Structures are given as structure tokens and as C-alpha cells.
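Researcher: Let's try something more involved. This one mixes different molecule types, so please make sure each is placed in the same coordinate frame as the others.
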Amino acid sequence: MSREPISPESGTGMVVMTDVQKHFGDHHVLKDISLSIAAREVVVVVGPSGSGKSTLCRCINRLETITSGSILVDGTALPTEGKALATLRSEVGMVFQSFNLFAHRSILDNVTLAPIQVRKESKKVAEAHALELLDRVGIADKADSFPAQLSGGQQQRAAIARALAMRPKVMLFDEPTSALDPEMVTEVLDVMISLAAEGMTMVVVTHEMGFARRAADRVVFMDDGRIVEQNTPAEFFDHPESERAKAFLSKILTH
Amino acid sequence: MDIFVDSAGPLLSAIGTTVLMAVVAGVGALVLGTLIAAARISPIPVLRGAAFAYVQFFVNVPLLALLILAVFALPDAGIIMPLAPTAVLVLALYEAAYVAEAVRSGVNTVGNGQIEASRALGFTLGQTLRLVVIPQSLRAAVQPLGNVMIALTMNTALAAAVGVVELTSAANKLNLVEAQPILIFAAAGLVYMALALVIGLGAGRIERKVAILR
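Model: All components are placed in one shared frame. Result:
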């Protein structure tokens, strides 16, 4: 990868989380989360299930509300409600574990719907851009198909194209390959790796350690709602510092 | 067969009344029921509670009891309406509860994931409903709504009990004169079956047209 290494604390962050706390009822899901993600940085969040990594990802575009603390996206505090929140969300792309394509619309419509409705692009411009993106993720021939006619890997690539169509400043990936059959994981990861190489700011929650090694600038390890340690992928995987990270890595890397 | 030919005029007009009641009450129930379903899934607790109470009331009280109540109680309370419109009003209010349940079940077929995806793309609540939720839930609700409309058409017969001259009532009157119950009520039954068939086929056609490829 020919990118400049990005130090975690450099400059003002594209996403800055400060002292974020999140409760689900009595359950304290996110504890004292402070995390700054620079523009063009690729941060991979790993950790055992239930560690709060998906919740952290979902807080960044306020699909989950936080109990206290602050989150800034490109210097703007997350609005609480309404039009301002919708506008902010339109600048933050999100890819879900379960794809969540609109089942009643063609793949092309899925990609053009938000640009036309939210960004007020003309149909012509939106469609040209959509076809370009679908070509880029390798499913241009599926433009007129419906989501259910595509394989999981194709659906997830369509979902990535849908998010990219909004020309987002940041892309959030919430376990994008966890619902895929093993043979389809690579085709999705390849798209994500090329995005990273082009300089997209990315937050990726994943269990794909190979992807973390190849594409991440920084690995953030979470356990029990806290960020336990963060480091470059090489350092994290080869020389984990905390006992919990060592235990986690020994569990996932031994088989 | 002569008995039908001799009374063709009153019988046809009675069938017309049945169809008209079904259509007017059906449209009313669809509109009101959709509004109730919207209230039922709205984020406002008071609306949700009111819609829930509405559905529970009408699902748990017999239609005949409601008809009798309306026909005899409303005039007592100073509201005087002709019989047929009263019956149509009660039918619409009653079936709206079932329409609301059918629409709500349709809404539930739209995965929460798609709603999250539309929020994440920057859609407002209105856009999410208009572009994602409603088109899909109406499609899923077509067949159940067809069944509600068939039930509504059959239920128009209860209006006979409170004196509306519709198909069942006309058949009954004819039988009092001719004393041929099997022939007369079998014929009336065939007319109801034909109406149900038309509604069922119509719903099937609509469903095929709007079906989502899965």
C-alpha cells in the first residue's frame, strides 16, 4: 500500500468521539470511548462479540443515541433530530451485515434513490454515477435485477455502491462479511480494499483479520465496552499488549 | 324460475343495494383502517394507545350488536340517519379494525434493516415511509385486504336484521310470498359467492401486478 502512514492523533479528525457513554437500560455498552479518526484513515474495530464494537459504529451516524459524551463528524456535532440529522447521515455511508437493500426496487433504483431524493440529483446524473459505481464493484450487469435475484456477495457490493452514491465523507462498515458464505467474502473485501487504497475514510467492524492486516492503518481492540488497546495492524497482531487482546487473538488465530 | 323473473325489479335493486353498501363501506374501511394502522405504528404513545383500543373494541364486539346499537341508540341520542347509511357507517367502522390489522401485518413484513438503511442514507421519516415502507407493506397486504373485503361484503347481510332492504332481506321477503326457501336462498347464496369471487380474483390480479420478486 503506497499510502502515507497516518498517525492517530494527527490534525483534526474526520470522526471525533469524546468520552462517549452508552447504556441500554442497565447495561453499560460503551464506556469512556474517546477515538479520533483522521481523514483518509482506515480504522478496523475488532473484539469479542458483545464488546460494543457494532454499537460504536452505529453511534457515529446516530442509528444509536449515546447517553453522554460528544461525537463530531467533519467538525460538526451530531444533530439530535430532524432535517439536520438526515443531512449529516447523507454524508456518512453505512454498510450493514444484512445488506438491507430495498426489496421492491431494482439494483439501479437502490443506488439512485437517495441521490435523487436526498441530494436532489437529476435522474440522468444519478443513473450515470450509479452505473459507474456498479461497474466498479463488478455488478454492472445486475443493474436491472432485484435484490433477491443476487447472491449475498453481489447484494453486499450493491449496498456498498448505494452508500458510495451519496459521495460520503466517511464509510461505516458494520460486519459487512459476517452474513456471507465463505466463498463470497473475498469479492466484498476486494472492493473494500480498493476503497481504502483510494483514500476513503473508513471505520470497519469485522472479524476478518486478513483485511485488518492488509488495509487498516489502525486496529482498535474493544472488550466489555472499552477500547482496550489500539495500534498499527502489524504491532497489534504480532505484539498485543493487553492480556485480553492476547486471549482474543489466541482464540481467533489458532484455527 | 318464474318467481325470479316476476320479482326481477326488487331483486336487482336489492343486489344493487348490497353492492353499493359493500363498495362505500369498503372504501371507508380502507381509508380509516390505513389511518388507524398508521396511528398504531406511530411513535406517539397516545395515538398508538387510541388505535389499539379502537381495534380491540371493534374486533371484540359482534357486528350485529353494533348494528342494533346504532340503529336504536343513535336516534335516541338525537342523531337520526336513514337505515342504509347507518348500516354502512357501522360496517365501515367495524371493518376498519380488520383493515388496520391487515395493513399493520403488511408493515411488519418490511424489515427493520431496510428502515435503518433508509435512515442511514439521509431519508426523513416521511421519505422512509413513502419510498420504502408503504409501497412494500401495501403489496404484502393486498391478499389479506381482499379477505377483509370479502368478509365485509358477506357482513352486509346483517343489515337485513335492522331493516335495510338488501339482498338477504329481499330474498326473505320473496320467500314469505313464494315459500320456496331452498331455491330462493340458494340463489341469493350464489350471488354472494359471485361477489366474493370477483373480489378474490381482483385481489389476486392486483397482487400479481405489484408482487415483489423474492
